[in-house]
């Protein structure tokens, strides 16, 4: 049976909401020394949206089967586009010529953040767009911790749109005369990193991608100064160039000559997912198992993970690159203590919880600093229940070295990377654990149980009434289980 993650339930599915998915996790002997990494989610999502700017087909290769892909497929189909998915080959073909609707389907956009990138696309196509709230991990500064859209509205206004947002995270915008080119300093949508003064923050990436999508079909030229520097934005600019948009990318500026109409078709080979690479490097070290990762477009991975690779070298994780293969070797002796800063120009915020796990094995106290998201330490309580010595001081996490022990009860990950960190911690301890919040993993990892099985993980999925995770036992009755 093809291993599956549990997708997030539809908001109107009350029966599913009464039962919560979990995984029972055990460690065992490794079955393989090589794992193939899936395509880069943070690039796949805006590329699926960008296909809506064209009347010619787009094809994405190595597009992982994630909640975002499923939700965006449903949204594009509901808006009139033809979408074909080859699940086995991880290929998605999008023909947006018949795209007609201007309302982002609320039931699907509430599950994922990726629907937000349809906002500039539908506005460009139809001169108007409406949406409700956009979902994703509850680490944002929006209503109830949700993902805000005010910065998207402010970007669209720079292109001549009239926008309104509501307190629930919805947005409506009109541009009856179409979008026009603009000069935008994207540092305006960031906050200065207190350590370097460079732009960072939760709105910086989304503002850059929104501006790229709006500029592609605008009238006239657009100049984007200080764009978000990581591959998900830089590669999006190059993808638009594949579709015939005149794009010039330099380290500090992206210039786009708008097509003033639909752009061309494109065939996009997604690089391997950078955060999945960091996840499996971490798993290899924690489990003491040498591992080879098979990559697509390794040059993008290596460049995009330069800050992470710098810290991995400093703490003593041996990595050998060989064409499309990345070999993770066994560290010689204990890892070294380190200070790691998560910022838009440094380590990915998504990688920060994984570094926290690694630094528990260091020989001296370490520090993590978070400058992007305000809610990125959601994994700390779970690790503390396993004996981790961690203290949070504002946006700084101080980590004392020490071994983990079995948790006294079930674990819960309240966002994607917190769930990943707790999953790896449970495997590293080696005793059976139950993990709730596994639905978050479906937003970031394709076929994760099968990949972890190569490292010896045995995972059984089930559902049960939601427990109080402060209870050392948790809820065990009325369960339904199956192997994954």
Percent of residues in helices comes to: 25-40%
Major β-sheet, in short? 5 strands, mixed
Mean pLDDT across every amino acid position = 90
Q: Radius of gyration, Cα only, in angstroms? A: 22 Å
What is the CATH-assigned architecture of the largest domain? Alpha-beta prism
- Helix/strand structural class: alpha+beta
Low-confidence stretches: 1-16, 469-483
What is the level 1 CATH name of the largest domain? Alpha Beta
- Side by side, the strands of the main sheet go 23-24-1-25-26
Account of the 3D structure:
With 484 residues, this protein is α+β, with helices and mostly antiparallel strands. It folds into two domains: 14-38 and 272-483, UDP-n-acetylglucosamine1-carboxyvinyl-transferase, Chain; 41-269, Alpha-beta prism (UDP-n-acetylglucosamine1-carboxyvinyl-transferase, Chain), CATH 3.65.10. Helix content is 28%, strand content 23%. It has 15 helices and 26 strands. The chain has a five-stranded mixed beta sheet. The protein has a four-stranded mixed beta sheet with strand order 2-16-18-17. Strand 23 (411-412), helix 14 (416-429) and strand 24 form a beta-alpha-beta unit. Helix 2 (41-50) runs parallel beside helix 3 (67-78), helix 5 packs parallel to helix 7 (204-216) and helix 9 (274-287) runs parallel beside helix 12. It is globular, with a radius of gyration of 22 Å. It starts with 13 loop residues before the first helix and ends with a strand. The model is unreliable at 1-16 and 469-483 (pLDDT under 50).
């Amino acid at each position: 049976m093809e291993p599956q993650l549990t997708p997030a339930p539809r908001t109107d599915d009350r029966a599913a909401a009464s039962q919560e998915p979990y995984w029972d996790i055990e460690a065992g002997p490794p079955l393989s020394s090589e794992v193939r990494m899936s395509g880069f989610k943070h690039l796949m999502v805006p590329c699926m949206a960008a296909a809506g700017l064209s009347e010619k087909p787009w094809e994405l290769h190595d597009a992982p089967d994630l909640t975002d892909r499923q939700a965006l497929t449903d949204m594009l189909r509901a808006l009139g586009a033809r979408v074909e998915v080859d699940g086995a080959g991880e290929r998605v073909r999008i023909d947006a010529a018949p795209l007609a609707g201007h309302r982002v389907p609320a039931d699907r956009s509430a599950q994922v953040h990726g629907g937000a990138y349809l906002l500039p696309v539908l506005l460009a196509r139809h001169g108007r767009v409406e949406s409700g709230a956009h979902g994703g991990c509850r680490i944002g500064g929006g209503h109830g911790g949700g993902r805000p859209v005010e910065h998207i509205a402010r970007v669209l206004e720079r292109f001549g749109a009239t926008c309104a947002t509501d307190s629930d995270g919805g947005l409506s915008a009109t541009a009856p005369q179409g979008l026009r080119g603009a000069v935008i300093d994207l540092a305006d949508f960031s906050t200065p990193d207190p350590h370097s003064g460079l732009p960072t923050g939760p709105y910086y990436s989304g503002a850059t991608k929104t501006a790229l999508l709006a500029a592609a079909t605008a009238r006239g030229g657009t100049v984007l100064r200080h764009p978000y520097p990581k591959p998900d934005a830089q590669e999006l600019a190059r993808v638009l160039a594949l579709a015939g948009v005149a794009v010039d990318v330099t380290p500090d500026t992206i210039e786009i000559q708008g097509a003033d109409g639909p752009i061309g078709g494109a065939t996009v080979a997604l690089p391997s997912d950078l955060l999945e690479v960091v996840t499996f490097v971490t798993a290899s070290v924690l489990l003491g198992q040498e591992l080879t990762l098979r990559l697509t477009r390794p040059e993008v991975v290596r460049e995009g993970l330069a800050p992470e690779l710098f810290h991995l070298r400093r703490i003593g994780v041996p990595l050998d690159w060989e064409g499309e293969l990345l070999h993770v070797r066994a560290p010689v002796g204990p890892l070294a203590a380190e200070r790691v800063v998560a910022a838009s120009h440094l380590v990915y915020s998504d990688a920060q919880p994984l570094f926290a796990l690694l630094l528990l094995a260091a020989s001296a106290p370490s520090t993590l600093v978070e400058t992007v998201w305000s809610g990125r330490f959601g994994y700390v309580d779970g690790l503390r229940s396993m004996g981790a010595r961690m203290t949070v001081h504002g946006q700084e996490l101080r980590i004392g070295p020490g071994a983990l022990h079995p948790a006294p009860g079930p674990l819960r990950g309240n966002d994607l990377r917190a769930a990943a960190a707790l999953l790896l911690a449970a495997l590293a301890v080696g005793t059976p654990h139950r993990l709730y919040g596994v639905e978050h993993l479906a937003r970031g990892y394709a076929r994760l149980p099968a990949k972890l099985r190569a490292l010896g993980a045995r995972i059984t999925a089930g559902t049960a009434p939601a427990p109080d995770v402060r209870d050392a036992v948790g809820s065990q009755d009325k369960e339904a289980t199956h192997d994954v």
